[in-house]
Structures are given as structure tokens and as C-alpha cells.
Design goal:
Helix content is 29%, strand content 22%. By secondary structure, the protein is α/β, with parallel strands linked by helices. The protein has a nine-stranded mixed β-sheet, sandwiched between helices. The longest helix has 11 residues. It is globular, with a radius of gyration of 15 Å.
């Protein structure tokens, strides 16, 4: 698929992409490239102290970027019936400006679709944040994406009919003891 390889080429060059994730249309880049992550913050007009989510395609990739995965997270990953983003402690091998001030990182494992295929080819996590200006509503379809986003991103994946009337993932935070806090149902 041409779109897949064009998006991959852009990621490898440190560029930003607008792409259909497993939930909504997202802005993305190489999660290990601080300059590309900074560009995502600029496109969204978002302060860098407000963390972003990244996507991985496997448990092995997750293990590469998190110091220790709590048993409760493994349980959630095995039983979740809808896309669930988990906030992990002690991330590693990602861009420093992707890590929250409390040394956490929100990661979602994707299992299918364009984002999954892209991550599998790229073999690194990809930033995934809603394709909106900070403070505005997340677009439910491609046609709701603000023109400034479309203009500022380096590459727009040409799959406009993907992801119509979707919603963001559930976000949970696990503490060291495995206690769960739901931040976004």
C-alpha cells in the first residue's frame, strides 16, 4: 500500500504525519525523535508540559520502552475490549519531551489497521495525539480536522474515509502498587 510506505518514509525522515489511528485521526511522528515531537506540540499549539500518547504494536515493543510493566497492565492489555491507553512509570528510549514531568508515558498497544501496520514496518513507537488544536474538540472524522492542522503537518495520509464517527481511547493510570485510576472512560 503506497500510503503506508509514504508515511513510513516521512517518519524515518523525522517528519510529522496525520494518520488514522486505531481510534481517531491522529498527529504522529517518531516517538524517539525530540525535534519531531516538538513539531507536534507546535502544530497543536500545546505546551510541552502536557504529555502526548504514543503507540506500540506489541508487548515486546512496550517492554523496550518501559522499565517495568506492572502485572495489572498485562491484565488490562489481555482483557481490554476497546482501545485502552495506559500511563506507565519510568519510560525509556523515547524522546525526553515525550515524557511527562512525573516520569510517566501514556502508551497504547494497537492490534490492527493502518497504525498497526505502520508501527510494525517502522519498528519504533509512534506519537499519537488527536488531530486538533489544543483546547478544541477532537475531530470525529477527517472533514472535521482544522485547516491549520492540515497545512502544518508534513504529510497527510490519503485515507480520508477511514475513522468516521470514532472516539478517543480510554486512559488509565497505574500506580506502583497496581491501583488503577481511570482518567478518561
Amino acid at each position: 500500500m503506497l500510503e503506508l510506505y509514504t508515511a513510513l518514509k516521512n517518519l524515518k525522515q523525522g517528519k510529522t504525519i496525520l494518520y488514522p489511528t486505531d481510534t481517531i485521526w491522529g498527529l504522529g511522528c517518531d516517538a524517539t525523535n525530540a525535534k519531531a515531537v516538538s513539531k507536534i506540540y507546535a502544530i497543536k499549539n500545546r505546551v510541552e508540559s502536557k504529555a502526548l500518547i504514543c503507540l506500540v504494536s506489541s508487548l515486546n515493543m512496550l517492554k523496550t520502552h518501559i522499565e517495568e510493566i506492572p502485572e495489572a497492565a498485562i491484565h488490562f492489555l489481555e482483557t481490554a475490549t476497546k482501545p485502552t491507553t495506559i500511563i506507565y512509570n519510568n519510560p525509556k528510549l523515547v524522546a525526553p519531551n515525550l515524557i511527562a514531568q512525573d516520569n510517566t508515558l501514556a502508551i497504547r498497544m494497537v492490534h490492527e489497521g493502518f497504525a498497526y501496520e505502520l508501527i510494525e514496518l517502522f519498528q519504533k513507537p509512534i506519537v499519537s495525539t488527536s488531530a486538533n488544536i489544543s483546547g478544541q474538540a477532537s475531530p470525529k472524522s477527517f472533514k472535521e480536522i482544522h485547516e491549520d492542522i492540515l497545512k502544518d503537518v508534513d504529510y497527510v495520509v490519503n485515507l480520508q474515509n477511514e475513522k468516521i464517527n470514532t472516539k478517543p481511547s480510554t486512559i488509565i493510570k497505574l500506580d506502583k502498587d497496581g491501583n488503577v485510576t481511570v482518567l478518561r472512560p
